[in-house]
């Protein structure tokens, strides 16, 4: 390990990487929001979301590499791996939404799709808040944030239900139904992945109080 890295406390390095990952997640959520709300240059916007997802992959990989060469870590190794992986899953899901909007040639996002990205953006903000305060192990903050993301995920479940009802009621084209159903499901998967992140953080904070 280079001398410069030896002089930097490893707990700071890991927390900085987690904070960076949460910032990338936030950028991804904002990019997906912009793609859906301002539906133009779809190819370029989908490519940008893929680039953001790759940045998240790089940070997750850096966390794994540093774990392999660090003897004492600020948090349990498995917890750090799990948290990095779950954050990466959120970015993967966002990219999954963007790719399907592009590949399925969705003409224009529906109002329900716009509602989904609003929920996803709110969930990403909560995750960013949690990740930036993970060192403080503030149980009250964790509880409140987890409750908020749980509420957003529940709203996503209901929105998926409503979206599918509307889809089958308003559309008679079987191929179009299959395409849009998958897009809606990936919006909801993204919210599920956001909730997974908060569960991991809540578990970490509880262990390290």
Supply database-style keywords.
globular, mainly alpha, 209 residues
CATH class: Mainly Alpha
Number of domains: 1
- Classification by helices and strands: mainly alpha
CATH architecture designation: Up-down Bundle
Major sheet characteristics: none
Distance from first to last alpha carbon: 31 Å
Order of helices and strands: HHHHHHH
User: Considering DSSP H and I runs of 4 or more, what fraction of the residues is helical?
Assistant: over 70%
Fourth-level CATH superfamily: Phosphate transport system protein phou homolog 2, domain 2
Residue fraction in strands: under 5%
Low-confidence parts:
1-9
Q: What is the fold's blueprint, element by element?
A:
Layout (H helix, E strand, L loop, with lengths): L2 H5 L2 H28 L4 H27 L8 H27 L7 H22 L6 H32 L3 H34 L2
Q: What is this structure, in a nutshell?
A:
With 209 residues, the chain is mostly helical. It contains 7 helices and no strands.
Describe this structure in words.
By secondary structure, the protein is mostly helical. It has a single domain, classed as Up-down Bundle (Methane Monooxygenase Hydroxylase, Chain G, domain 1). 84% of the residues lie in helices and 0% in strands. The chain has seven helices and no strands. The protein has helices spanning 3-7, 10-37, 42-68, 77-103, 111-132, 139-170, 174-207. α3 (42-68) packs antiparallel against α4 (77-103) and α6 packs antiparallel against α7 (174-207). The longest helix has 34 residues, at 174-207. The model is unreliable at 1-9 (pLDDT under 50).
């Amino acid at each position: 390990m280079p001398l410069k890295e030896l002089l930097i406390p490893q707990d700071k390095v890991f927390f900085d990487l987690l904070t960076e990952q949460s910032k990338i997640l936030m950028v991804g959520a904002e990019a997906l929001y912009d793609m859906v709300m301002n539906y133009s240059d779809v190819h370029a916007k989908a490519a940008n979301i893929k680039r953001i997802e790759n940045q998240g992959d790089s940070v997750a990989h850096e966390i794994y590499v540093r774990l392999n060469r660090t003897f004492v870590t600020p948090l349990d190794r498995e917890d750090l791996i799990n948290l990095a992986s779950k954050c990466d899953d959120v970015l993967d899901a966002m990219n999954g939404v963007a790719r399907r909007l592009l590949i399925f040639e969705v003409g224009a996002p529906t109002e329900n799709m716009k509602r989904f990205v609003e929920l996803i953006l709110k969930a990403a903000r909560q995750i960013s808040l949690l990740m930036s305060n993970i060192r403080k192990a503030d149980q009250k903050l964790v509880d409140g944030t987890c409750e908020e993301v749980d509420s957003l995920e529940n709203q996503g479940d209901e929105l998926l239900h409503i979206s599918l009802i509307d889809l089958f009621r308003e559309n008679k084209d079987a191929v179009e139904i299959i395409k849009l159903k998958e897009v809606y499901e990936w919006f909801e998967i993204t919210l599920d992945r956001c909730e997974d992140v908060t569960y991991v953080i809540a578990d970490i904070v509880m262990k390290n109080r």
